């Protein structure tokens, strides 16, 4: 174990690691001195206590803890949504309610990839939050049939993908909406941004899976466009209108994007596609709550 | 110049707010740029514009001064210029093997990148760097594999650039605007990757050199110097980076 390497790795995502550990670096020095004296076996324990001091609840601002726990709730939901499907498709599984068939191996592999990322996000957020992490959400706490709104979510592949698209596009909007609250913690802000764009990649692929499943009619663009009747929701699923509310914005920071710079090709649809919009916490919570059991809602 | 700087010092706090109100005039711009000898390139570009030159090509290079949000936004503007120039060329004459759907989506992406470029240009107003000269001599625009490989490189690099620069932004409004754009770039990246090899939309292991971490489910993130070192191959204009 090379302590300096570990610190350098952390420094890549948290430029303030040394300040966190000790503003005057005296403790660092004393730590290294202790490290020389104590047995190698004790080093991991000493390291763990050092990081707990640096990243424990006391050093994360309350607003940052709130954002990360909010994100963690969403990641738990996404993880269980995909995991239940993949577990249900595993031969001999006790999960028997996933009755649709994937059209090919690639589609199941893609859902597995996405599931694995969501699990990694859950683990990362739990580790980062430490003792401040919210209580875990179990599959039993969820209701992906949304009280019957999506009763066929695990029996109809198209419904499953439609809900998946809703989750991914919501995730992108939720992280975007919270970025400003993380300005106080640059290292954590960057991690959140790195999760945010992974969710956008997922959304892009799920949209392509939907187009493949429809045989190309209708087409779901990889980016958020305008709906067929010019509405903000381009998913073709009116039940998820709330996921796309405000996505049809065409003015950014006072600049009208339609036809900007004399480019007639930038239509309203192109302007909408060019910028993804954030979603405020309350709106995201009400969407997430559709998929949580009574008593387990956010 | 010195006199003007002194005269404008009281307007300091108005400057940040006014960036996106598009009311940054030449005077406050001079105050921003005149903060040191390093700002001379920017002043020169600004002065040219004041004399009525549209889109001056920067023979003396472009300076990205990361001391404040203007530098980060100009950095994004530079990358969007590069992406837009590439897709304009692809969309105007796509590789013959492109399907109708691919042509349509590359047309879409072209307009997204133009919109991003024009947005930054309008928002930065006189603080914007000029037009970059690109070098696409290494790209075979008749070859689908060359075009797709370049598109993937640009999109993944763009994602890494925004992710790596976000925490340098001080103002929440600008951060949000960068966030609105980066997820669109990530959607592009996933689309292009799937065209090259279906299922690689978020192959984070292949993005390790751009700062991604598959075990943590984290996308690419690179500091501006590293991004510009990669992008430099496609940019003729000399880009000076200061205060990084």
Automatic annotation (TrEMBL), chain B:
Its signal peptide is none
Q: Which InterPro entries match?
A: Ferritin-like_SF, TAT_signal
Its domain of life? Bacteria
What is the protein name for this chain?
Answer: Ferritin-like domain-containing protein
